[in-house]
């Protein structure tokens, strides 16, 4: 297949909110600096649902969504040295080129090399897509497009991992689990003995809980309006639960009262701007830090009284938990293999690529953390 167009199955999003269509898609060979990957397993993340909803300013249609996956390199373009056919890989929507101003800063995991192309659904080289259906180009998504049996990614967007690692599990290390763990370890840098509040107990929020427990946090308070989340969250380290619906007072006040003036760290894992405000305002005066993890829709804005910051609270955000993708995703795979981090516990459903519309319905149902699709 090397150097040839591959025709394979992929789920195409033709329009916002319209069911995805399983199509025969032509996938062009990788050009210089590109890698064609056979995707074996992909999970769904709420960010896929968000873009599909039409509320993502970077959402383009028709496109192939998907960014939490694992597979095997099928072929590589000219000049690609760090991976070769047969390597087991995780596509990384947050690239790591190790050469750009961002990568060299030592201050961020964001990479600037290809972001301009991935944000508009094309490849860097010729500003074109490698996907088409009967000659019509289909946009890429987040530089990954994993809802396809084959995809083409930039070489700076693939992490080579231990070939012994089960791909049907480690696919989750493409997004949600690292995001939550890294929000705690890299962005907030939670210390032992801290009090932590987590808004939203989906996969990302539970990974925050797991990370906070590992960091030695004392109180880990989970906040969700869906009480079904509570039982499961205990296994991930949540020590107390608050359902905002049980309280008349604003939720930030409830938390401040519970914690002698506020929490040391809070995490917004929903994507709701009014909860982002509550998450900041439940932080302790003088030092409390709030991390925005949730992705809010186009047009939404955050607000608070500047006095909240003047009096020492800190507002931060995180992308992919601050992990440098190509360097650190393989390390997270190793941690999973050594049973130092969970993955299996986040997988509540397994389906096939052709059932992807059903998988999106499950994702909105509340019982589902991650649904892994066999591609
Ligand atoms: P999810 O939908 O599984 O989890 C959200 C949880 O929030 C659910 O349990 C839901 O019941 C709860 N919730 C909804 N409204 C609430 C409210 N008003 N008060 C309290 N709880 C409420 O989603 P997820 O997959 O865990 O992702 C969470 C968010 O993180 C999404 O916005 C996603 O796009 C974003 N995300 C960001 C990054 C990043 O790099 N920053 C990475 C992955 C996901
Ligand atoms: N296109 C969206 C931005 C979405 C967003 O913030 N994405 C996160 C990852 S979410 C993964 O589930 C991210 O990494 N952002 C940093 C980046 O470079 O995109 C919008 O709203 O414009
Ligand atoms: Zn995601």
Write the layout of secondary structure elements.
Layout: E1 6-12, E2 21-27, E3 34-43, H1 46-52, E4 68-76, E5 88-91, H2 101-105, H3 115-118, E6 131-133, E7 136-138, E8 150-154, E9 158-160, H4 167-170, H5 176-188, E10 195-199, H6 203-214, E11 219-223, H7 228-235, E12 240-242, H8 251-258, E13 265-268, H9 273-281, E14 289-292, H10 307-310, E15 314-317, H11 325-337, E16 347-352, H12 356-365, E17 370-374
Parallel strand pairs: 10-11, 10-13, 11-12, 13-14, 14-15, 16-17
Antiparallel strand pairs: 1-2, 2-6, 3-4, 3-8, 3-17, 4-5, 5-9, 6-7
The chain binds nicotinamide-adenine-dinucleotide, ligand AHE and zinc ion.
Summarize the structure.
It is built from 12 helices and 17 strands. By secondary structure, it is an alpha/beta fold. It binds nicotinamide-adenine-dinucleotide (NAD), ligand AHE and zinc ion (ZN).
> Uncertain segments of ≥5 residues (pLDDT<50)?
none
Number of helices in the DSSP assignment: 12
Q: What does the overall shape look like?
A: globular
Strand content: 15-25%
Head-to-tail CA distance between termini: 18 Å
Mean pLDDT rating: 97
Q: Mind describing the biggest β-sheet? A: 7 strands, mixed
What small ligands are held by the chains? nicotinamide-adenine-dinucleotide, ligand AHE, zinc ion
- Radius of gyration (CA) equals 20 Å
Order of helices and strands: EEEHEEHHEEEEHHEHEHEHEHEHEHEHE
Measured as a percent range, the helix fraction is 25-40%
Number of E-state strands: 17
Secondary-structure content class? alpha/beta
């Amino acid at each position: 297949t090397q150097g040839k167009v591959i025709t394979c199955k992929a789920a195409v999003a033709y329009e916002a909110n319209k069911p995805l269509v399983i199509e025969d898609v032509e996938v062009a060979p990788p050009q210089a600096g590109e890698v064609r990957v056979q995707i074996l397993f992909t999970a769904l993340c709420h960010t896929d649902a968000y873009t599909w909803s039409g509320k993502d300013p970077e959402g383009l249609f028709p496109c192939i969504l998907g960014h939490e996956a694992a597979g095997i390199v099928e072929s590589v373009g000219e000049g690609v040295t760090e991976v070769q056919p047969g390597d087991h890989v995780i596509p990384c929507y947050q690239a790591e080129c190790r050469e750009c101003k961002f990568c060299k800063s030592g201050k961020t995991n964001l990479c600037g090399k290809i972001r301009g192309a991935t944000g508009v659904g094309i490849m860097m080289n010729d500003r074109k897509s490698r996907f088409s259906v009967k000659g019509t180009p289909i946009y890429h998504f987040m530089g990954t497009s994993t809802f396809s049996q084959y995809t083409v990614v930039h070489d700076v967007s693939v992490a080579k991992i231990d070939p012994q690692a089960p791909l049907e599990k480690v696919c989750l290390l493409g997004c949600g689990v690292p995001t939550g763990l890294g929000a705690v370890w890299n962005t907030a840098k939670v210390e032992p003995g801290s009090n932590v509040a987590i808004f939203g107990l989906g996969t990302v929020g539970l990974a925050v809980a797991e990370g906070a427990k590992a960091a030695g946090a004392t109180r880990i308070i989970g906040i969700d309006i869906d009480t079904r989340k509570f039982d499961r969250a205990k296994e991930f380290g949540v020590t107390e639960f608050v359902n905002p619906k049980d309280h008349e007072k604003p939720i930030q006040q409830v938390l401040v009262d519970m914690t002698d003036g506020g929490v040391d760290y809070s995490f917004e894992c929903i994507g709701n701007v009014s909860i982002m405000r509550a998450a900041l305002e439940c932080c302790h005066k003088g030092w409390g830090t709030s991390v925005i993890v949730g992705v809010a829709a186009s047009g939404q804005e955050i607000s608070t009284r500047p006095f909240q910051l003047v009096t020492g609270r800190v507002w931060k955000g995180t992308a992919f938990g601050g992990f440098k993708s190509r360097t650190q995703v393989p390390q997270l795979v190793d941690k999973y293999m050594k049973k130092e981090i969970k993955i299996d516990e986040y997988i509540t459903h397994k389906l096939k690529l052709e059932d992807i519309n059903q998988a999106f319905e499950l994702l909105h149902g509340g019982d589902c953390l991650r649904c892994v699709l066999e591609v």
